[in-house]
Amino acid sequence: MKATLSFATLLGLAPAVFAANFTLLQDYSGSKFFDRWTFIDNFDNTTNGDIQYISPSTNSNASQLAFVNGAGNAIIKVDNTSFVPYNEKRDSIRIESQDFYEVGSVWVFDAIHLPYGCSVWPSFWSKGFDWPRQGEIDIVEGINLMSANQMALHTFAGCTASGGSGAMTGALGDTNCNSTTGSGCTVGEKTGNSFGQGFAAGGGGVWATQFDTSGIYIWYWPRANVPASVSTATDSIDISAWGTPSAAFPAAGCNIPEFFGPQQFVLDITLCGDWAGVPSLYQPTCGGDGSAQGCYVNSVINAGSPNMDNAYFEIRSIKTYGVNSSVVATGTNAASPNPTSNGGGGGSSSNSSGGGQSGGAEGIMGLTRNAVVGVIVAGAAAVFGGLAL
Ligand SMILES: *[C@@H]1O[C@H](CO)[C@@H](O)[C@H](O)[C@H]1NC(C)=O
Ligand SMILES: *[C@@H]1O[C@H](CO)[C@@H](O)[C@H](O)[C@H]1NC(C)=O
Ligand SMILES: *[C@@H]1O[C@H](CO)[C@@H](O)[C@H](O)[C@H]1NC(C)=O
Ligand SMILES: *[C@@H]1O[C@H](CO)[C@@H](O)[C@H](O)[C@H]1NC(C)=O
Ligand SMILES: *[C@@H]1O[C@H](CO)[C@@H](O)[C@H](O)[C@H]1NC(C)=O
Ligand SMILES: *[C@@H]1O[C@H](CO)[C@@H](O)[C@H](O)[C@H]1NC(C)=O
Ligand SMILES: *[C@@H]1O[C@H](CO)[C@@H](O)[C@H](O)[C@H]1NC(C)=O
């Protein structure tokens, strides 16, 4: 899609319009929403949040924090019913998809409510099996009482955000995606009601992410503006009329197959920690004593309600699409140290630019070939579209 525009621009042509047709790979929704995810059973050992992630396999309370509600939507929430004494953590949920998605796929996340409130730090994001070598894409993320979503990439050193103001509607923040330097490369959403109370009041919204060799693109539409090509999509989706995305990370600044392996989704909610709990970020809107423990003491301990009453996702669906059914590395369990499932890939040796080191080579190479073919086909359609003009 984006390759089309730059190719047409190169020729001095108006952007070509063509039907980019991606077919449905997976539909995570309704009573089957939780079927293809692994529940993490650990404290937050990646961002220092004051929570304990619980799993239904070891803690029956998890079914109250991750379930499908009467409307058929998935609820993922922080415990808001327990009294948590000082020095203890609050229960929450982190799930990781067992499916990994190759370059060439499109992911559509439809939510009615996102977690928010003082100390609350939710995210819908993706990562490669080997983090950060295989990259991370933060699609939905925010803290405390923020009213706008922030998108980001985290990679090894050498990837930068190069999308200019014409390439996206969002506000470019840090341009260095180097994961070791902190925030990664970031883009702030400009469309209103993309997080917090405003998002919920507007009935939620939809994000679509295109993971392509030409770049990584994220679109956002509040509920009232979701295009028909998204809201009525069933077994295929046409992305050609989506227009300028909220965030664009073009390949010009970041060689996508070099910095990103196949991606699995993560949904989590933590509290305080390395972002929401930073005193200079927490105190201005949420108060407390401004100390390192201010967030924890002010928001996490003691009664869960009402502080945590809005700390929940309500998700209608997550749907994934590919140029055809080949660009999914499916059935790979994130908990497995060395996944090599047939036709699966997505393991630590998977590499979109070929040459996986060990294990599952056949499945991985097959996927790699198909993904590349898919991208070439999209490019060819773009050429025809350009010539037709
Ligand atoms: C998209 O692909 C699906 C499945 O192959 C097909 O049924 C549909 O007609 C295609 N749509 C367009 C616009 O090409
Ligand atoms: C976090 O804990 C899990 C489960 O014990 C472990 O597999 C993982 O390596 C830990 N991560 C870090 C960054 O320590
Ligand atoms: C489940 O929640 C109840 C109420 O907060 C608590 O007393 C109990 O210890 C929890 N069970 C586990 C296994 O954490
Ligand atoms: C893929 O392989 C190439 C060549 O071996 C390497 O430079 C690159 O870092 C690898 N990318 C990932 C995401 O593992
Ligand atoms: C990436 O971050 C590391 C750690 O801060 C730093 O040593 C390195 O120079 C950075 N590289 C780039 C290209 O920013
Ligand atoms: C907890 O939050 C839910 C909404 O997520 C709300 O319905 C409920 O009243 C809250 N409080 C308690 C004590 O459950
Ligand atoms: C995927 O699509 C490409 C381009 O249409 C085609 O060449 C390839 O055979 C397809 N692969 C599968 C498994 O359908």
From TrEMBL:
Gene Ontology biological process terms from the UniProt entry: glucan catabolic process
GO molecular function list: hydrolase activity, hydrolyzing O-glycosyl compounds
Segments for region (Disordered): 332-360
Signal sequence region: 1-19
A Pfam family this chain is assigned to: GH16_XgeA
UniProt cross-references to PROSITE patterns, sorted A to Z: GH16_2 (PS51762)
UniProt KW keywords: Signal
Domain GH16: 26-284
Residue stretches of biased makeup (Gly residues): 342-360
Protein name: GH16 domain-containing protein
